[in-house]
Amino acid sequence: MSLVDAAKAVRLNAYAPYSKFQVGAALRTPSGAVFVGCYVENVAYPEGTCAEAGAIAAMVAAGEGEIAEVAVIADSPDPVPPCGGCRQKLAEFAAGDVKVTMATTDGKTRNVTVAAVWTGSGRGQLSTRIPRGCWAIACRCCCHPCWRPAGSITR
Fold it and tell me: What is the mean pLDDT of residues 34-63?
């Protein structure tokens, strides 16, 4: 099973009753082990768990500590990059040249590296539309409509 397929399968387990934005992630370690995670949101935003963070936590819990490849998938018109917090988490466990595949459920993919995801290259421009009183302004997560890449899902 490819990493994108593993991410696609776990995405169906996402708990997203508020946003309805299901995300899945899978990562492979140098040993060949695959770890998956899905988005788990919480009404006490931002206390949820991103899919990438869940996969990283599973990897660490299994005693591994290095990422060799990552895949993230969401049901969006364009591939969605990891949020800022997950970019930092990926950089903690992966070299800059590690491949990150961002995918959509309809088959679109975009391949970048951890370094490119970290710097923002390979990603659409962030929307500058910030609603007054937006609760997502602090984290700039990719799951909230205010911060999705241009051309991504809109409200």
Answer: 94
